[in-house]
Amino acid sequence: MKIQIPEKAKFIINTIEAAGFEAYVVGGCVRDSILGRVPGDWDITTSAKPEQVKGLFRRTIDTGIQHGTVTVMMDKEGFEVTTYRIDGKYEDSRHPKEVTFTPNLEEDLKRRDFTINAMAYNESKGLIDIFGGMEDIQAGVIRCVGDATQRFKEDALRIMRAIRFSAQLGYTIEEHTAEAIRVMAPTLRNISAERIQVELVKLMTSDHPDYIRRAYELGVTAVVLPELDACMATEQHNPHHRYNVGEHILHSLVEIRPDKAGRLAMLFHDIGKPSTLTTDEKGKDHFYKHALVGADMAREILRRLKFDNDTIHRVCQLVKYHDYGMGQEPTAYLVRRAIYKIGEELFPLLLQVKQADIMAQSDYKRQDKLNALDKWQQLYRQILAEGQCVSMKTLAVNGRDLMEAGIPSGPAMGEILKAALQMVLEYPERNDRKYLMDWIAAGRYKE
Ligand code: ATP
Ligand code: MG
Fold first, then answer.
1. For a disulfide at 144, which of 102, 148, 185, 336, Cβ 3.0-4.6 Å?
2. How confident is the model at residue 206 (pLDDT cuts 50, 70, 90)?
3. What is the rounded (10 degree) CA torsion for 73, 79, 83, 86?
4. Residue 358's domain spans which residues?
5. Which atom of ligand 1 is closest in space to residue 27's alpha carbon?
């Protein structure tokens, strides 16, 4: 096994070795190199103590000196160099209370989560693979290093990491590791929402976002996303659907590109269905207002998981409007109104959401739905090409024009501008300053 280590990392390893210590690239970069993926960062593990590492390089930063990590700066690029360590007892499934440095590489590899993440490599010693990481890569397996239950007890975040890596790599979770996840899932309550969010986003933007199904099967979503479990338990007797609500959601995830807001929008687009279910006298299920209810639920869930406001806004808008105009004949007016409601910037993503939703439904009327969506696309392109007004920004009159015409600023002015925009959405050719000023002067906005 030969790994191409970047020159700068090689220089760091050589310098440390020349001073009489050991040093290896380790963890994610070794795994990704073996997989032929481009590693995000090259972490280095060494027998040298942090102070000794600092003594060997001109520019270093004390990144996490109490955990043994020093960042060595090479030009503008930083490399994390961490001393071999044994993690001490963990407090409440979260942080190691203390770490102990060790001169033994094996001890350092033992503290790592999964066999595929517990390999080290350098040019003098080659691949150090004590726990069968290579074999597990070849078999496509996520397996804990050592006793799985114990490892999850030390740090419950590893439960999320196991599922996330399986989704990123398309791997299965080894039986004992899976069983330990099932047993330890409730301890995820001790993990901060921020850390769960990071893993959820990596899972959602991976090649296999639908592997969240495994999280459901192993009782993980019951703890971090119980709303999904409710969907998995909700059948939908309706010709438009072939799956229950949860399975429809999972199938829709793989139908959209790996964009964070897009994938999260699919995850939540039907989350309002379980609580809006009604069954008519013919036995057909309906979910009136599920998009609106779902947008509110998505906001609550995303807040609980401490997502940023921009992401919350984007995802909730997409959830709220995912069904907008469905079943109606697409007209330019409908599309302009949709662009206005969801926002010009988000609109292209809404079209992707709609497409993914259709693809995860039944075949019933699928071609009609796709044809209608095509028409949405065409109308959208035409609206763009003609530069038609779809927002207050591009309305031919603004507050200043109205003020000059003697209308005082305030809520009334806002109403006038809104009425003008509503009209222009319907009749784009009327987006003309003179026309609109005359229309306003004549008091027609009151109609
Ligand atoms: P990526 O950077 O793609 O998320 P990675 O494997 O590099 O994947 P990092 O979080 O960067 O993951 O961690 C680097 C290495 O540190 C891992 O490969 C693993 O060996 C170890 N590690 C990280 N988090 C944990 C953890 N919670 N428990 C045990 N070992 C961990
Ligand atoms: Mg990494």
1. 148
2. very high
3. 150
4. 237-386
5. 18
Residue 61 phi, psi (nearest 5): -125, 135
Q: Is 105 helix (H, G, I), strand (E, B) or coil?
A: helix
The response to whether residue 174 sits with its C-beta less than 6 Å from ligand 1 reads: no
At residue 444, the pLDDT reads 87
Domain count, the chain: 4
Same domain, 305 and 370: yes
Question: Measured from the CA of 39, which atom of ligand 1 is nearest?
Answer: 3
Geometric angle at alpha carbon 395, from 389 and 401, rounded to 5° = 165
Find the CATH number of the domain harbouring 351. Answer: 1.10.3210
Q: Which of 224, 249, 278 delimits the end of a domain?
A: 224
Ramachandran angles phi, psi of 296, nearest 5°: -65, -40
| Ligand 1 atom having least distance to the Cα of 87 | 29
Q: What is the pLDDT of residue 109?
A: 98
Q: What pLDDT, on the 0 to 100 scale, is given for residue 326? A: 83
191 and 304 in one domain?
A: no
Residue 94 is predicted with a pLDDT of 62
Ligand minimally distant from the alpha carbon of residue 30: 1
What CA–CA distance (Å, rounded) separates 227 from 297?
9
Q: Return the ligand number nearest the Cα of 198.
A: 1
Strands 141-142 and 172-173: parallel
At residue 134, the 3 state secondary structure works out as helix
The conformation of residue 185, written as its DSSP 8-state character, comes to G
Tens of pLDDT along 354-367?
999 999 999 999 99
Q: Is the pTM of this model over 0.90?
A: yes
244's enclosing H/E stretch is none
Q: Is 17 in the pocket of ligand 1 (CB under 6 A)?
A: no
**CA-202 nearest atom, ligand 1:** 4
For residues 216, 218, 219 and 220, what is the CA-based torsion angle, rounded to 10 degrees?
Answer: -70
Q: Distance (Å, rounded) from C-alpha 110 to C-alpha 133?
A: 12
Tokens matching residue 322: 């995912």
Chosen domain end from 133, 154, 189: 133
Q: How far does the centroid of ligand 1 lie from the alpha carbon of residue 176, in Å? A: 20
Mutate which of 37, 45, 117, 153 for ligand 1? The one with the most ligand atoms within 8 Å of its CB, which is: 117
Same domain, residue pair 254 and 319: yes
